[in-house]
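Standup notes
- DV: blocked on the single-chain target, sequence here:
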Amino acid sequence: MIPFFRKVRKKMADDNRPFKYMRYAFGEIVLVVVGILIALQINNWNEENRKDVLFKDSMEQIYNGLKADIDNYDSLQKGLIEQIYLIDLILNNSDSFNMFEIPFALNYIYYDFVTIKTETEYFAQNLIYNPENRQQKFLAKRLAGYVMNINSFKSNINIDLNEILNEKGLPRPYLDQYNRQANLVIDSAYFTESQMKIASNLIHSENFRSILKTIRVKTDYDINNMGNIIAESKSIISSIKTKYPEVRIIFENVGIIGTAINGWDDVGAISTPMEETDYAIYETEIYLKKGLIKFRSNDTWIKNWGGNSFPEGEAIHNGNNISIDQSGLYLVRLDLNSNQYYFTKLKN
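- DV (later): unblocked, structure below
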């Protein structure tokens, strides 16, 4: 009897063998599928993480581009404000001008500022964002609108004052866009006496004064439009900084140059390097003579900063030369985050 039951159990085991194989195979398939799903999930996570890193990197580039836009538009806006001041002076107090100053003033009113090309547009156009990420999507949309606004910005001044001055035989002197104070250093021998009289008669002409009033209104409109661009730039910068607080202003090889050191680069001088002590904060100890200085990056004038006061003040992109009125050893500090500079005198 015992051998019989053994045979029965063996037969039953043999009959269940296919089911065991199937269960084993099914288990293997489940493990493979689970492994593939986990691998896909990890790959998707890595891809999303890579996109977030790329987006963050793009945001830092855009952050710097917007900062440059603010500097450029702020510089142009200041120039237009000076033009309005000059127009008001001509219209309301023309007797305050010397005869030889008038043709220079007229040319300065016409000063045509260049159209700004922004690097923000390049980075915004190539921005890759996660459409499922609401913050990224919102920032991308704001940037697209910002770029469109800049590209559509055109000056409202459609009066060719230069043509009027040419018809009157008044040549146009060189005007330095990046050092507007220098424009007021006037060569009294540049215009002839007859040209000075023509300019003087012109500013007292009712027809010409009407033209100046029109230019003033249009210039004021341009100033307001630039103010809107600056405000939007600052708002986007604030949003980027809130989302990505680690973004930083990027500049290389910031230095100081001028007659208070070894002169400008037209006499072979190069910038004295400054040490970056923190993000976009530069310092150096240096002996300065009485004279002029500016800050700049990479020994070129593409990125440079000046100012209107000493020993501290606002670092203005393409601003005026900073006048050093006391010689001595100074700790010089330039903060490009807040656009401020400081000259702390250490000893005479």
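- Follow-up: DSSP finds seven helices and eleven strands in the chain.
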